[in-house]
């Protein structure tokens, strides 16, 4: 019986049929994703121009391609208007990502989108600093307004 490996002498001899992108369809509904509500409280100083800086060093989500966990620090800087983010609800919101398959880029943009919908700030920036995966450290940032 012939060894099948012996018949392939050159990697160029391997013919790969054209296949669809292996990421296709993995995130097509991400913008409609239902997440827990981020609660707010009334800002008693809306006439003041001040910034709020928040860091959540325990953010986790799942890689939709590999199913492996991704770990990150999520940093939020925002200038509130009439409402401020309630921190306990923000923590619960972040925890909802724990078993969610989502790309880093989508996670950061979804967090920004939900934050802006909740408190309608003057401005906001979300940064996701993701731990090294495959030798690559990823940092994603998104801002409002653009």
Question: What this model shows, in words?
Answer:
Keywords: Cytoplasm, NADP, Oxidoreductase, Queuosine biosynthesis. This is NADPH-dependent 7-cyano-7-deazaguanine reductase. The chain is an alpha+beta fold. The protein has two helices and six strands. It has one domain (39-144): GTP cyclohydrolase I, C-terminal domain/NADPH-dependent 7-cyano-7-deazaguanine reductase, N-terminal domain (GTP Cyclohydrolase I, domain 2, 2-Layer Sandwich). The protein has a four-stranded antiparallel β-sheet, with helices on one face. A two-stranded antiparallel sheet has the order 1-4. The longest helix is centred in the last third of the chain and has 16 residues, at 104-119. It is elongated. The protein starts with 39 loop residues before the first strand and ends with a strand. Residues 4-19 have low confidence and may be disordered.
CATH superfamily membership, which one? Answer: GTP cyclohydrolase I, C-terminal domain/NADPH-dependent 7-cyano-7-deazaguanine reductase, N-terminal domain
From the 3D coordinates, which CATH architecture would you assign? 2-Layer Sandwich
Computed over alpha carbons, the radius of gyration is 21 Å
Give the SSE order as H and E letters. EEEEHHEE
CATH topology: GTP Cyclohydrolase I, domain 2
Instruction: Give the biggest beta sheet.
Output: 4 strands, antiparallel
Mean pLDDT: 87
Main sheet strand line-up: 2-3-5-6
Helix percentage: 10-25%
The count of strands amounts to 6
Count of alpha/pi helices: 2
Pick out the low-confidence regions: 4-19
Q: How would the global form be characterised? A: elongated
Structural class: alpha+beta
GO molecular function, one term: preQ1 synthase activity
Biased composition (Basic and acidic residues): 1-10
GO biological process, one term: tRNA queuosine(34) biosynthetic process
Enzyme class: oxidoreductase
């Amino acid at each position: 019986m012939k060894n099948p490996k012996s018949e392939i002498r050159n990697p160029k001899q391997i013919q790969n049929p054209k296949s669809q992108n292996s990421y296709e369809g993995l995130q097509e509904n991400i913008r409609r994703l239902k997440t827990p509500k981020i609660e707010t409280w009334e800002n008693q100083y809306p006439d003041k121009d001040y910034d709020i800086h928040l860091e959540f060093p325990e953010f986790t989500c799942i890689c939709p391609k590999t199913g492996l966990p991704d770990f990150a620090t999520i940093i939020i800087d925002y200038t509130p208007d009439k409402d401020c983010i309630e921190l306990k609800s923000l923590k619960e919101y972040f925890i909802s990502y724990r078993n969610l398959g989502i790309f880093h880029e989508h996670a950061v943009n979804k967090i920004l989108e939900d934050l802006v919908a909740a408190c309608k700030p003057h401005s906001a920036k979300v940064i996701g600093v993701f731990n090294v995966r495959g030798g690559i450290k990823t940092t994603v940032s998104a801002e409002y307004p653009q």
